[in-house]
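[STRUCTURE TOKENS]
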Amino acid sequence: MIGIRGKAGDLQQLGNAIEQRRKVARAIFDDAVARAHPSSWLAGHLPAPPPSGRLILLAAGKAAGSMTALAEAHYLDTVGLAPTRLLGHAVARHGYETTTRHIPMVAAGHPVPDEGSIASATRALELARAATADDLVLVLLSGGGSANWVAPAGTLALAEKQTVNKALLRSGAPIGEMNIVRKRLSRIKGGRLALAAAPARLLTIAVSDVPHDDPAAIASGPTVPDPSTMADARAIVARYGLKLPPAAEALLADDASETPKPGHPAFTNSEYRIVARPADAIAAAVAAARAAGYEPIDLGPDLEGEAREVAQAQARQALALKSEGRRAALISGGELTVTIAGKGRGGPNQEFALALAIALAGEPGIIALVGDTDGTDGGGGEASDPAGAIIDETTLPRARALGLDPAQSLRDNDSTGFFEGLGDLLRTGPTLTNVNDCRVILIDPTPAAP
């Protein structure tokens, strides 16, 4: 391996061992993603169509394409529903669309919304308002829906909404806090899609991408009552020192922008089911690690915090396990944050991997693969953005050989540039699901080579 000295035979054996462990880590991650894909669970949760009236299917988020295509096949082929009784609209981030037979499928911006986001939210609200008491409105919801369904309230323009999104993304605020602010600036988020659909029966089938699976946080909760308050939103803006456009400030200053609360009659005929969770993916990863001969240490699906700080804590855990002679796998999920101070490229998973490599300092026998189950980690909003990164004991020596400075890359938030130079970006492409991150750290105390 580059940057490591030794006999040729020993180097080859070491390289083979590292490559094999990388493959194991990738297989564990792939099992987690497969468990989260709608093809594993959606059919068993789809409701019967209404006795009369129409089934109005509205889908948004990174899993919208796969969920819509599966739902179409179920209703048109398995159930035999007349096409005239099935209508709707589906939207996913650019590159996450799928070919659908009947329901129109379009793409919109993520994480920063675009005109497609506004057009899709407008169409969803139109279809919801047209629903009658004889109809069933079926909402297939997944992470990314906040950016895919954008209906600015008041006089807020798209450019101003984009400014708000960028400020929130750069702030380091957890996704739940971002969504509390977004709800006050929207005509569809925070339960307002449910208001539009009443009095029709409303069923939401959701893929959770948020810690603790809070329905009010998934895609900013368009179909559920919102327990957060206007005071919460104002406090978040103040806490992070956010500079918002005047139109956004006006909405946050106006109590009329408050969202519908629990007990509102619009939710009387509404049901919400979370059918895929981060915990499901982490459980699959734990099972795969055990099958590969590792002692799984499940740190849970809901980790939050600054990516580099969580990485340092997990590096200490990994080193402690190795010192105890345990062949173990540290598995964790959740959604970490990055407070952006530099001008580089990256995302929470890549920053975690870079900080972890620095903290491990080339410790032999430890490999980590960290990625977002949706297939993209930060980046510029392109479907080709990396999902995460992989590190091993050769990461720092190879970086030095290439003239890369890991500490400087971390200071500049340029984890993508760092791992791109090493060829160690995790690239999965769009996975058409989204249950948050999956971090796999494999610890092998036995030397890989004599």
Observations:
- The chain is about 40% helix and 15% strand.
- The mean pLDDT is 94.
